Amino acid sequence: MAASIGAVVCRALHSRRHGKFLSIGRGLFSGARCLVAEGETHFGFQTVSETEKGEKVYHVFESVAKKYDIMNDSMSLGIHRLWKDILLHQMNPYPGTQLLDVAGGTGDIAFRFINYVRSQWEHQIRQKLKSHQNLSWQEISKSYQEEELKLPGGSQVVVCDINKEMLKVGKQKAQHLGYSEGLSWVVGNAEELPFNDSKFDVYTIAFGIRNVTHIDQALQEAYRVLKPGGRFLCLEFSQVNNPLFSRLYDLYSFQVIPVLGEIIAGDWKSYQYLVESIRHFPAQEEFKAMIEDAGFLKVEYRNLTSGIVAIHSGFKL
Amino acid sequence: MTLMVSVSVVRCPLYPAQRAFHASALLRRVSDEQKQEPPPSSSQQRFESHPPGDQPDQEPQRSHHSYTDQGGEESEDYESEEQLQQRILTAALEFVPAHGWTGDAIAEGAKALGLSVAAAGMFHSDGSELILHFVSQCNSELSNLLEEQQKLVQLGQAEKKKTDQFLRDAVEARLRMLIPYIEKWPQAVSILLLPHNIPSSLNLLTSMVDDMWHYAGDQSTDINWYTRRTVLAGIYNTTELVMMQDSSPDFEETWHFLENRIADAMKMGITAKQVQLTGEALVQGLMGAAVTIKNLAGLNQRR
């Protein structure tokens, strides 16, 4: 989780540097931003310049990319799988949905999306059979085909991440698990997405927005690439509301997680960064206000595990 | 118009201009799509096509986003989220025969309006909002219909119907609105009976029944008020159930059943009155007999 965070920010800065070459207008502007207004920001509990933060986070994720999934499982005791499942359940994607998963690194959300869409398709086929509608031979043969052609209904998922190492791990996982169709991997910066306007139905960012240097820019980019009626979903660590539980959680975060990081991934500092960055992220209501500022309507949030994690949802209406 | 502006002021004190820009940009886009897509709205009319008294209630629904019907310059109207949700649900009704009362129909409805299918995420995935929207739409259509009829009676252009005939026609008109969706209606009824839907569906049922009695001329202020509405609700529900498994041409058996039930209810009313009168008469007779016996026994004499 820390890895993806750092990766996003690192990627943010990298592409900003390369921005000049990729797209002149934008690049110049962002380059100018880089040189002129180098603000200060936080990297965990340290204060660093914005450029530095990106680099540091990139290195964090580069180093943990291979052990990322194992660390997630051990830190959250496997609960992160439930969180991601709940996110997909809340999304409830209809066949034909175009999903953009930003900071999606190792592809957890993307794979779950593919599973969901596939099972929905089977459900639809079964329903049609039940209601005695005549299926055309095309549809019947489609349901028997292995996933050779596109995903049912034309759904597609694009995984975008700033860190190439994380994407590499993700691609390997996809090959290993057999996900190939309807899936694409793109290197990109959450603050400057390499996509056209109004392209996606759903935009998700799971445990990634914390690492973005300019969260409001990322939110504005999300607004830009979503179609009208599109949905923004963000799964992120948030503030625990129960005081007693909060103390236990703090204890666990600062005493146990970095130790696990050292033992399993050999990297104390990255996981120290992780738990510190969680504390710096705005609370649920504040983040909700930020999302509304970007133009989203019907913004709601839902706490999971009494506030350790929150899912924020907004619509571009 | 002020609604949306005030919403943006409340939400975002720092960037009102930005939000207004976003809002108006979207709405212009949406209203453009409205201009380009007359077919969906006309097919909405197909499903809601009933006696001509329906035109008035089509207008309020659409008036918020088009003041001219000639396809001229459409005034930029701010649409609140609720109004957009209403529009999506109305568009979704078209897809109900194919997809049932589910989130899928809502997704298709959103797609028909030019929005992304993810907009269906605004609603429950079980389709309850769609059903409640449909029921309240039918109820308002019915109110308008009854009001039209009342106006005609007041103007002297039609005769005032007797209560049982009136109720029969009202229930029949209301049930006919279900005919396009009758195949999937059992699913809708079962969803309306879910615990989290019961308050809303009960509310809609009672207001509909209240409406019917009001236009039938009920002015009771005693226990009759409750009994009449309960009886009519019972008649409506049972007739609805009969209709769902009726396969006769144009649901003749259902209307026959309805006629019988209303006749029963009327008879019950008359019988109740008769019982009451008989009871009173009986009591009076007994009192008279008691006084006579007292007289005979000499107990009434004053000493």
TrEMBL record, chain A:
Binding-site list for S-adenosyl-L-methionine: T106, D161, N189, A190
Subunit structure: Component of a multi-subunit COQ enzyme complex, composed of at least COQ3, COQ4, COQ5, COQ6, COQ7 and COQ9. Interacts with PYURF; the interaction is direct, stabilizes COQ5 protein and associates PYURF with COQ enzyme complex.
Membrane-spanning parts: none
Molecular function (Gene Ontology), one example: 2-methoxy-6-polyprenyl-1,4-benzoquinol methyltransferase activity
Listed PANTHER family: 2-METHOXY-6-POLYPRENYL-1,4-BENZOQUINOL METHYLASE, MITOCHONDRIAL (PTHR43591:SF24), METHYLTRANSFERASE (PTHR43591)
Role description: Methyltransferase required for the conversion of 2-decaprenyl-6-methoxy-1,4-benzoquinol (DDMQH2) to 2-decaprenyl-3-methyl-6-methoxy-1,4-benzoquinol (DMQH2). Methyltransferase required for the conversion of 2-polyprenyl-6-methoxy-1,4-benzoquinol (DDMQH2) to 2-polyprenyl-3-methyl-6-methoxy-1,4-benzoquinol (DMQH2).
Name of the top EC class for this enzyme: transferase
Reactions this protein catalyses: a 2-methoxy-6-(all-trans-polyprenyl)benzene-1,4-diol + S-adenosyl-L-methionine = a 5-methoxy-2-methyl-3-(all-trans-polyprenyl)benzene-1,4-diol + S-adenosyl-L-homocysteine + H(+)
Keyword terms of this UniProt record: Membrane, Methyltransferase, Mitochondrion, Mitochondrion inner membrane, S-adenosyl-L-methionine, Transferase, Ubiquinone biosynthesis
GO process terms (BP): methylation
Gene source species: Chelydra serpentina (Snapping turtle)
UniProt-listed Pfam families: Ubie_methyltran
Gene3D superfamilies per the UniProt record, alphabetical: Vaccinia Virus protein VP39
Similarity annotation: Belongs to the class I-like SAM-binding methyltransferase superfamily. MenG/UbiE family.
Assigned EC number: 2.1.1.201
Pathway terms, separated by semicolons: Cofactor biosynthesis; ubiquinone biosynthesis
Main location: mitochondrion
Protein name per its UniProtKB record: 2-methoxy-6-polyprenyl-1,4-benzoquinol methylase, mitochondrial
Matching CDD domains: AdoMet_MTases
Topology within the bilayer: Peripheral membrane protein
GO cellular component terms given for this protein: extrinsic component of mitochondrial inner membrane
PROSITE patterns: SAM_MT_UBIE (PS51608), UBIE_1 (PS01183), UBIE_2 (PS01184)
HAMAP family named in the record: MenG_UbiE_methyltr
Location relative to the cell: Mitochondrion inner membrane
Automatic annotation (TrEMBL), chain B:
Record's compositionally biased regions (Acidic residues): 71-82
Region (Disordered): 29-83
Keyword field: Lipid-binding, Mitochondrion, Transit peptide, Ubiquinone biosynthesis
MF terms (GO), sorted A to Z: lipid binding
Domain COQ9 C-terminal: from-to ranges: 198-269
Stated role: Membrane-associated protein that warps the membrane surface to access and bind aromatic isoprenes with high specificity, including ubiquinone (CoQ) isoprene intermediates and presents them directly to Coq7, therefore facilitating the Coq7-mediated hydroxylase step. Participates in the biosynthesis of coenzyme Q, also named ubiquinone, an essential lipid-soluble electron transporter for aerobic cellular respiration.
Protein name as annotated: Ubiquinone biosynthesis protein
